[in-house]
Design brief:
The complex is a heterodimer of chains A (114) and B (114).
Chain A: E1 4-7, E2 10-14, E3 19-25, E4 30-38, E5 45-51, E6 56-59, E7 62-67, E8 72-77, E9 86-94, E10 102-104, E11 108-113
Parallel strand pairs in A: 2-11
Antiparallel strand pairs in A: 1-3, 3-8, 4-5, 4-9, 6-7, 7-8, 9-10, 9-11
Chain B: E1 5-7, E2 10-13, E3 19-24, E4 31-37, E5 44-50, E6 53-57, E7 64-68, E8 74-78, E9 87-94, E10 104-105, E11 109-113
Parallel strand pairs in B: 2-11
Antiparallel strand pairs in B: 1-3, 3-8, 4-5, 4-9, 5-6, 7-8, 9-10, 9-11
Classes of the chains: A mainly beta (114), B mainly beta (114).
């Protein structure tokens, strides 16, 4: 069964600290993996999109890694800021990347405290 | 601002009623997607349109329907509303209908069914 599981479910860190969020998937075949940031009550915003051949991608203080062999991805946030408080959603696209094969994780809720 | 607009922002209605949610995609985007996000739940893909034609269907109830018009705006119709339909409804748009194409999300419509 195609699934995307994220851990931890929630995380509290102090401002300035780093953190890493995990995503494991069983989607097959695989096309690409995306990380989104969603502020409470707002629409998700794309952080990174990685295809099979990419194993790391950065967007400012956000760095995503992908291991297609173990079907794992991580999102590393460096020097966290209060504005990083949000849900982070891992999404895996299967097949030819068609929408019908987009599998969403439930997200990790990150709280950054001063 | 993603460039995707959704109206209305909030909608309060009663069980059994019918509502229409509207979405205007980013300029140049041909594909529109609809998602439902219930309280503390992950995003659920409902349906996708590309240049006026339905491209993919997700977990969309029979009471729900959508269409994309020649000017590319889309409407999601929800009928015979139930309490459980209360949720945030997001629209997203992208240039293509499949592949590694970034989706841009609107601000959402919050539907409350009383």
């Amino acid at each position: 069964k195609n699934q995307v599981e994220q851990s931890p479910q929630s995380l509290i860190i102090l401002e300035g600290k780093n953190c890493t969020l995990q995503c494991n998937y069983t989607v097959s075949p695989f096309s690409n993996l995306r990380w989104y940031k969603q502020d409470t009550g707002r629409g998700p915003v794309s952080l990174t999109i990685m295809t099979f051949s990419e194993n790391t991608k950065s967007n400012g203080r956000y760095t995503a890694t992908l291991d297609a062999d173990t079907k794992q991805s991580s999102l590393h946030i460096t020097a966290s800021q209060l504005s990083d408080s949000a849900s982070y959603i891992c999404v895996v696209s299967g097949g030819r990347g068609s929408q019908g094969n987009l599998i969403f994780g439930k997200g990790t809720k990150l709280s950054v405290k001063p | 601002d993603s460039g995707v607009t959704q109206t209305p922002k909030h909608l309060i209605t009663a069980t059994g009623q019918r509502v229409t949610l509207r979405c205007s995609p980013r300029s140049g985007d041909l594909s529109v997607y609809w998602y439902q996000q219930s309280l503390d739940q992950g995003l659920q893909f409902l349906i996708q349109y590309y240049n006026g034609e339905e491209r993919a269907k997700g977990n969309i109830l029979e009471r729900f329907s959508a269409q994309q018009f020649p000017d590319l705006h889309s409407e999601l119709n929800l009928s015979s509303l139930e309490l459980g339909d209360s949720a945030l409804y997001f629209c997203a748009s992208s240039v293509a209908w499949a592949g590694v194409n970034e989706q841009f999300f609107g601000p959402g419509t919050r539907l409350t069914v009383l």
